[in-house]
Write a structure and sequence with these properties.
Layout (H helix, E strand, L loop, with lengths): L1 H12 L7 H34 L9
Length: about 60
Amino acid sequence: MMKDQLQKWLDKHVIVIGSDKKAMNVLKKVMHKTIREKLTSSVEPQATTELVERTNGKPNKTT
């Protein structure tokens, strides 16, 4: 669900303008991929840290 929202946001806000439509589509896909990677790499470590803090550094046990 989050990926769908991100893709909709990227489609709306990341616009590439140029005369070669095929090249612009490739550039748009690369930009979307780069933005997505940067967002996920900046979010995941923080989420992991918050999880460790919430469990007081203890591993999560599931039974």
